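User: For my dataset I need records formatted as: sequence, then structure tokens, nothing else. Please produce one.
Assistant:
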Amino acid sequence: MTTTFEAQRAALADVVAIPVTPFAEDGTVDQDAHRALLRRLLDAGVTTLTPNGNTGEYYALTPEERRLVTELTLDEVGDRAAVLVGVGHDVPTAVASARHAAELGAVMIMVHQPVHPYVSQSGWVDYHRAIASAVPGLGVVPYIRNAQLPGARLAELADHCPNVVGVKYAVPDATRFAAFARDAGLDRFVWVAGLAEPYAPSYFSAGATGFTSGLVNVAPAVSLNMIEALRAGDYPAAMKVWEQIRRFEELRAANGSADNVTVVKEALASLGLCRRDVRPPSRTLPEGERAEVAAIAAGWSA
């Protein structure tokens, strides 16, 4: 029997939330706060979540913490949402993480971009093929940040691994995205705008049907309003939401996205939902910049 992955494909054509990983005062993962934040997303109507994503500080977590985050998420979510677990690093580590996610009931994995100074195009295919082949029952979503990778390489990967069903495309170039998607096969994959709400309208106009979000941790209704507008093809309404979130996302993107996670956690801290702590190489927001973030978050929750 051939697996069609229709449920996974449908889950990707939505707001794909990237939950934060809250830390306790002693620096460990705050499990109670983590569960509470997940419940808040679920109760708001979010139905696709990515534990161990970049907003979850994936690269600052230990292997044991990444396993814990996966376990907490799948246990808390149950059957209320689709879980797309982030995996990466070297191939054996990524495969072990993928198999762990499968054992716990995840339906998909997102493969982080290879962290290596020398990435060849054929090597990119080999890396993802090794991971996807190890978990043929899971939907696989490559996270693409490499502007040099051509769409034909993704098509090649999917020829070998039919469980590659979606793409998180995070190159900040809507024209390149449009070409890449068409070269890979526009209808062959679910295209997720991997640069969140700021890029969602332009990427949807070129074929995306879902977008990732860190902002959704703070204001789920705002992100859901944008996806509803985009699904309806109502770009003026989507741009109204864009205007609403613009300053928040500018703060996250400043200085090469240095405060990408920091701003989200600062907003959550201002709402009393978790501590503001982040791990190096991120930093907590300077005192003088916190009031603006708090005011934005308060405006959304009013």
